[in-house]
Design goal:
This protein is an alpha+beta fold. The protein has one domain: 3-Layer(aba) Sandwich (Rossmann fold), CATH 3.40.50. Helices cover about 20% and strands about 25% of the residues. The chain has a 4-stranded mixed β-sheet with strand order 1-2-4-3. Strand 1, helix 1 (about 15-25) and strand 2 form a beta-alpha-beta unit. Helix 1 (about 15-25) packs across helix 2. The radius of gyration is 17 Å and the shape is globular. It starts with a strand and ends with a strand.
């Protein structure tokens, strides 16, 4: 078990955030901290669990031959306030929170393209 788990640009990869949070909580010592920094750019939506998003015939349906069952049904995307409510519901106590924190991603100061997220940061 750990005193602290840090999640950086990570939680929004969860098709089911409840499972991620429960797993993190089980890795922490009593009184341990979860430190999170990252946006909520949920990016699993095109990859249904079990078939990795394959749609061989282009009809928008996940093809039977590529499916390995129901895998992890119930994928969902939450807004920041919903994530915070879930974090507390799972058993974490939020000690500090900041929203809209500028968070550059793969930044090159000399590039014409600048990617800047508004991250949710909390302990």
């Amino acid at each position: 078990t750990y005193d602290v788990v840090a999640t950086v640009f990570f939680l929004d990869t969860a098709p089911n955030l409840v499972r991620y949070l429960e797993t993190i909580l089980s890795c922490l010592k009593p009184g341990g901290l979860l430190v999170n920094v990252g946006p909520l750019l949920w990016h699993f939506e095109n990859n249904a669990p079990g078939n990795h998003g394959r749609d061989d015939d282009g009809d928008g349906e996940h093809d039977y031959n590529n499916s390995s069952g129901i895998a992890d049904p119930g994928s969902f995307e939450l807004a920041d306030d919903e994530v915070m409510a879930l974090v507390e519901r799972v058993g974490f106590v939020v000690e500090a929170r900041e929203t809209d924190r500028p968070a550059p991603y793969i930044q090159d100061d000399e590039s014409m393209m600048q990617t800047l997220y508004r991250a949710s940061t909390w302990v």
